[in-house]
């Protein structure tokens, strides 16, 4: 039996096999890609085995490949949703490395590594719980009539406080010699206000019909 590469299998996909779906939502709107799937032989497992193809909307030559083991009659949307869950995992590791130093260790034993990782993940869990508790999103009105958008006068909710922001606020309030509560809260509201406007514009551009 001759082996076949995934690139050769992807070339079999027809134009009507590709469907544009959002894998997940990002800060700048839905992560839209063109998706297709090809059924593979799966005589050694129960269920079905598919080759899932993810193609860039802007660069059709950029194709990523997934091997999917699913139950019978699993819809393409479910495969795309599961494939998109990888972003949440990557963001978790990135946040832990950047905010609590998950990867900043120099140890020579398993016990030392385990202690560092446990302490870092405990600190990150603490910040994540604060993030969930502090999910207060006041609203404000923004008039986009003068801009080149179709939004007009829109009510926008502030973006939620982020884990890096909460870490910075904690540092400012606990370790600064003269912490200024008004300044720190004002900085937080200013940042969330401008990010909310930016996010609204990005979403409007991403979801605009081509």
Identify the overall geometry: flat
- Strand numbers in spatial order across the main sheet: 1-2-3-4
DSSP, total strands: 6
User: What is the terminal separation in angstroms?
Assistant: 44 Å
Commentary on this structure:
By secondary structure, the chain is of the alpha+beta class. Helix content is 44%, strand content 22%. It is built from 6 helices and 6 strands, in the order H-E-E-E-E-H-H-H-E-E-H-H. The protein has helices at 6-10, 76-84, 86-100, 110-133, 163-175, 181-206; strands at residues 19-26, 29-40, 48-55, 63-70, 139-143, 153-157. Strands 1-2-3-4 form a 4-stranded antiparallel β-sheet. Strands 5-6 form a two-stranded antiparallel sheet. Helix 3 (86-100) crosses helix 4 (110-133) and helix 5 runs antiparallel to helix 6. It is flat. The two termini are 44 Å apart.
Name the descriptors:
about 210 residues, 4-stranded antiparallel β-sheet, single chain, alpha+beta, 6 helices, two-stranded antiparallel ribbon, flat, about 20% strand
